[in-house]
């Protein structure tokens, strides 16, 4: 069936914002979680790298970014990021008190809260790795319930600057993509359980109400 399409040369992206993916359900998006002196990568990460059992973590303190890179078991500083039973692989919670403390200090986070960051699978040269922007995080606060038990909120809290916008303006969003391409990064997605690349580029508790927004 053919659907008529109206041709409109007057349309402009001026004033539009690309809505942040954090505002949508993202159970199938790669993510890393910091919680109780542990880190874990979700099942979506394992799905995108089905043959990888060992990884290394790299941190860029200046850009506030974290990378997870596939590694061999015998490589220095590699660790097991999943548990395996038969053909089934599950995410593994990794205790890392010193690393957890250093990231908490770097980002000025509250160690009593849970932090979740979405990431992207990229290709840099011949390597595939996940990149996480530690500045774009969901925060799950802990509180004292009526039964005098400490519980974790199921509603995330986002950075305060997100309160007044849906996302980045279209042109700024495009410029950031161009920077990633310039740095040699190619962002990957999942389509029909296969990795699909875009077109070749040739290349204790604290009150956070003043600095965060709650998204109901």
Quick synopsis:
By secondary structure, the protein is mainly beta.
Task: Give an overview in words.
With 216 residues, the chain is mainly beta. Helices cover 14% and strands 41% of the residues. The protein contains 3 helices and 18 strands. It has helices at 43-48, 97-107, 170-182; strands at 17-19, 31-35, 38-41, 54-60, 65-71, 79-80, 82-85, 88-91, 94-95, 114-124, 127-140, 142-144, 150-152, 157-159, 167-169, 185-191, 194-196, 212-214. Strands 2, 3, 4, 5, 6, 9, 10, 11, 16 and 17 form a 10-stranded antiparallel β-sheet that branches. A two-stranded antiparallel ribbon has the order 1-15. Strands 7-8 form a two-stranded antiparallel sheet. A hairpin with a 2-residue loop joins β16 and β17. The longest helix is centred in the last third of the chain and has 13 residues, at 170-182. It is globular. The relative contact order is 0.17.
Please specify the SSE layout and strand pairing:
Layout: E1 17-19, E2 31-35, E3 38-41, H1 43-48, E4 54-60, E5 65-71, E6 79-80, E7 82-85, E8 88-91, E9 94-95, H2 97-107, E10 114-124, E11 127-140, E12 142-144, E13 150-152, E14 157-159, E15 167-169, H3 170-182, E16 185-191, E17 194-196, E18 212-214
Antiparallel strand pairs: 1-15, 2-3, 2-10, 3-9, 4-5, 4-6, 5-11, 7-8, 10-11, 10-16, 12-13, 14-18, 16-17
Order of helices and strands: EEEHEEEEEEHEEEEEEHEEE
Overall geometry comes to: globular
Oligomer: single chain
**What share of residues is helical?**
10-25%
Sheet with the most strands, sense and barrel status: 10 strands, antiparallel
Structural class comes to: mainly beta
Count of individual beta strands: 18
Mean pLDDT comes to: 74
Enumerate how many helices there are, as a single number: 3
Determine Rg (CA atoms, Å).
Answer: 20 Å
Ranges with pLDDT <50 over ≥5 residues? 188-216
């Amino acid at each position: 069936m053919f659907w008529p399409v109206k041709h409109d040369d007057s349309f402009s992206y001026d004033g539009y914002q690309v809505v942040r993916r954090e505002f949508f359900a993202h159970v199938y998006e790669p993510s890393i979680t910091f919680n109780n002196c542990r880190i874990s990568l979700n099942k979506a990460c394992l799905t995108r790298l089905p043959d990888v059992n060992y990884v290394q973590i790299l941190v860029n303190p200046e850009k506030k970014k974290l990378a997870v890179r596939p590694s061999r078991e015998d490589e220095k500083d590699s660790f097991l990021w999943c548990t395996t039973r038969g053909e089934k692989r599950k995410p593994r919670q990794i205790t890392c008190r010193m690393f957890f403390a250093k990231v908490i200090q770097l980002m000025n986070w509250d160690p009593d809260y849970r932090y979740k960051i979405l990431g992207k699978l990229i290709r840099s040269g011949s390597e595939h790795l996940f990149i996480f922007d530690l500045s774009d995080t969901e925060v799950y606060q802990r509180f004292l319930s009526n039964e005098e038990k400490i519980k974790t909120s199921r509603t995330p809290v986002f950075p305060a600057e997100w309160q007044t916008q849906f996302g980045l303006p279209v042109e700024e969003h495009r410029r950031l993509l161009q920077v990633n391409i310039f740095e040699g990064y190619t962002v990957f997605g999942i389509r029909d359980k296969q990795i699909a690349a875009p077109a070749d580029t040739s290349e204790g508790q604290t009150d956070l109400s003043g600095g965060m927004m709650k998204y109901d």
